[in-house]
């Protein structure tokens, strides 16, 4: 049984290697499925090989950097609040929401949702175990949440001081994120995790910086326009609202964060990593 399993794994590894080699012979051609898969597995392996301190610091940086999306969201809501209808106002978020993601991804900080499928692929390819996966996920989530909380506290203070938004704007944004019930947040987060996993996959196919920016903008703008729940930027939105509003309790924050994290993880790990990997394996 073990010999057969090892042979199957060797066949899979060989097919990935051969697909990547064939594509490299013609650099002007688009990347093959095997080459994209190999890039994703190798990139995921690089994260596993990092030191724990490096992962945490990079994750905190991602949590801080994605906060610039929140800064722009609150500023936009405050600036246009008396100029456009409320429903339209939340759709305008689409144009500023991607900024933080562009900063994080091009800056190569470690963001949980973007790394979900990347970190799952080495496990599916038998290069890492589930214990290692959950450990890395835990470190990345912890760092992202700490960075987001620090950014949220900073913006709660600096926003009113600069008169670019007020505390009421923060509360309105938090209530908007918390409005759906738990099941809706969970399903919404699965779709968001799915999109973020696809984002990572698509970026492996893109070579130029401009193309990468367009892809990041396209995916994250879709999330913003449709109101899908992202656990890391949502962490800043809901935590900030909890700090300044007596109407938002710690249980509201925990409810949102737990369902959003689970949904994002399932969306990236199952709908992208597992399906993409198994689609390749079944062809071997």
TrEMBL record:
The keyword Hydrolase belongs to this UniProt entry's keyword annotation: no
Annotated keywords: Membrane, Transmembrane, Transmembrane helix
Region of interest called Disordered, as start-end residue ranges on this chain: 1-31
InterPro entries tied to this protein: For/NO2_transpt
Transmembrane parts of this sequence: 55-80, 92-112, 133-158, 178-201, 213-233, 253-275
Keyword Nuclease carried by entry: no
Cross-referenced Pfam families: Form_Nir_trans (PF01226)
Protein name: Formate/nitrite transporter family protein
Phylogenetic placement of the source organism: Bacteria, Pseudomonadati, Bacteroidota, Flavobacteriia, Flavobacteriales
